[in-house]
Structures are given as C-alpha cells and as structure tokens.
Amino acid sequence: ITYGCLNISNEDLPHRTKVTKLIFAAYEQEHEHLKMHYQKALGRVSFSSDLWSNPNLVSFMALSSHFLSCDDSGHLHLDNHLL
User: What is the pLDDT of residues 11-50, one digit of tens each?
Assistant: First the structure.
C-alpha cells in the first residue's frame, strides 16, 4: 500500500492485531444484536441454508434465520437475518 503513495507511512496503517480486535468487536456487537432479536421471537426460530457455485466453480454457502416478531403496535412481522 505504501509503495504507490508517497504521503502514507507505516504508522498510518493499522496493525494486524488492531484489525483483529476490530473484527472481534464487530462480531460481538452483531451477536448481541441477534440475541436481542431472537429473544423477541414469537415461537420458534427457523434456519435455512443454500449452497451454490459461480461459473468459475467458486463455492458459496448462505445461512439465514426466519422468525415472527411483534412490533409495538401489535403487528406481526416476519424477520429474516443472513448469518
């Protein structure tokens, strides 16, 4: 990164341990957010998965959750989260 930019020094780039800490912090925040949503679920939480590959045979997998929740006005909502 510093090769093509004369005004960037090594001190301007985050260290790998800093990036690792930021990734773990983002994971923990999203994990708590999902736990809060799952606790508001009416009934059970369902999970579904899908596998596919692109034309270059690169494989992908998706896991999602689905559940019903009720908002403050009493309306039911189908909530979906890509995990």
Answer: 777 788 888 999 999 999 999 999 998 988 999 999 999 9
Decide: residue 54, CB within 10 A, 0-12 exposed, 13-18 middle, 19+ buried.
exposed
Domain coordinates in residue numbering, the chain: 14-82
Distance CA 81, CA 83 (A): 6
In this prediction the pTM is: 0.63
What's the helix, strand, coil split of the chain in %, to 5? 35, 35, 35
Q: What are the E-state strand segments in 1-83?
A: 46-53, 59-70, 76-82
Closest CA to 67 of 45, 48, 82: 45
The phi and psi torsions of 29 (rounded to 5 degrees) equal -65, -45
